[in-house]
Structures are given as C-alpha cells and as structure tokens.
Design brief:
With 249 residues, the chain is an alpha+beta fold. It is built from four helices and 15 strands. Helix 1 packs antiparallel against helix 2 and helix 3 packs antiparallel against helix 4.
Length: 249
C-alpha cells in the first residue's frame, strides 16, 4: 500500500532526512586510506544519535551496524568491521538512514579513498549523475517506469550494467514501503506518481554486467564478475511543483 504524506508529515520527514544526509557527509569525509569501516560506522552512529535520532539500519532485520559500507566490487550491504581497513584507490559506498519523528531518511553515496583510477571515477560520476536523471522524472502524473528508464538509458549508454535484483523503494514511517522503484523500466509504465509520495531512488551500477551474488554472511552483495560497483541514493518527495530532494543538505 502506498502512503501519501501531508505537508506537515513531509516537514517532519525532512528533519530525519537532513540528519541522514549530515551523517552521510560526516561518514564520507572519514573515507581515507588506513581508516577501518568500523571507525566510519561509529562516526555515523554518533552523528545520528547526538541529534536525537535513531540509526534506522541498526538491527533492521538483524543488520548489525548503523551503515552499510561496501568497497570496490561490493554493491550494497557491506558490514563494517575493525578488520576492514580502507586502502588507497578504494571506491567506498556508504548507505545509511536516520529515524526521527516517526519518519525515516535514507541516502547513500560512493566516495573515493585517496586517488582512484579514471575508470572508477567515471563509474562513480555516471552513477551519481544517473540518480539526478531519475529524480528529474519523479513528477506528479508520471510513472515509476519513467524514473527507471531514465537511469537505465543514462548508464547503459555509457556501457555499464544495471543491478536488477535490488531496487529503490517507497520510504516514510518505514524504511521500505511501496512502491518498488527499479533502476530500469519502460516510460509510461508502472505505478503512477502522486503528490505526497516519498521514494528512495538509488542507482546501483556496475562496471561490468549487472549480475550480482550474495556472500555467505547473508548481507554483502558483490558483482558476480568482480568488477567495480557504485551506489547513490536520495529520498525524494513527489510534489505538485516537482520533485523535492529531502536528503539534500
């Protein structure tokens, strides 16, 4: 069931989204060679809790951390660890959420550890730009397929693979709500977008094929061919005046 938010509810949700966005920025700033992913996770936890919010991901379906931190060929859901130390040239994706006022803010971004390869930078830049191509299509009266098609066309035209097993989603009082928001689709198809809808648009784009595999820990998702992946996400409100990025600082 799709839940439409009132203007008052969107204002409350914006507060959660701003905290999530600030935590992501703080965590991303800490991405440096020699830093463990557990240290970055603690930075995110401290940022969220000091502002009176709760880390949405922590204990969500058993996930043991505040942030998903995925490196290089890891697509999503990487578990932070004090033994996982970031190296020069790593591509580090961080995904996290904050819950405040009964609403969730959800966002993600990919960060460079030191100097990354031109190929890694191109993948990261393309993934980030595809997110904004998708957001442009989050307009009242449009369709979910318009968003997915925009992301798909942008990335596939540049030779990248689209992850299909995992998608964006509605977000609000719960982290995962209807509708699903795939990063592929057909224009004019899918659920109609209505004012008051809030969705997480999150391209997960691979350097090679879109095929992925889940690792034995039951969480970490990697590219099947071992090539790089990047991930960007914003929580977006559909309004009569166009899309509004709630997780924009």
């Amino acid at each position: 069931m799709i839940v439409l938010k009132t203007t008052k509810e969107l204002a409350l949700m914006k507060e959660a989204c701003v905290i999530a966005a600030g935590a992501l920025r703080a965590a991303g700033t800490a991405v440096q060679p020699g830093v463990s992913t557990a240290e970055i996770d603690k930075i995110a936890y401290d940022y969220i809790t000091k502002r009176g919010a709760n880390p949405t991901f922590l204990n969500y379906n058993g996930f043991p951390a505040t942030a998903c931190i995925s490196i290089n060929d890891e697509v999503i859901h990487g578990i932070p660890s004090k033994n996982r130390v970031i190296k020069e040239g790593d591509l580090v994706s961080i995904d996290l959420g904050a819950t405040l006022n009964g609403f969730v803010g959800d966002n993600a971004a990919t960060f460079a550890a030191g100097r990354i390869s031109p190929e890694a930078k191109r993948l990261s830049d393309t993934t980030r730009e595809s997110l904004y191509e998708g957001i442009k299509m989050a307009v009242a009266g449009g369709r979910v397929g318009d968003i997915g098609s925009a992301v798909q066309r942008y990335c596939e035209s540049r030779g990248y693979g689209i992850v299909r097993e995992f998608t964006g989603h509605g977000v609000g009082r719960n982290m995962h709500e209807d509708p699903a928001v795939p990063n592929f689709g057909t224009p004019g198809r899918g659920v109609r977008l209505l004012p008051g809808m809030t969705i997480a648009i999150e391209p997960m784009i691979n350097q090679g094929s879109g095929a992925v595999k889940v690792m034995p820990d039951g969480w970490t998702v990697k590219t099947r061919d071992g090539k790089l992946s990047a991930h960007f996400e914003h929580t977006v409100a559909v309004t009569p005046d166009g899309p509004v990025i709630l997780t924009q600082l």
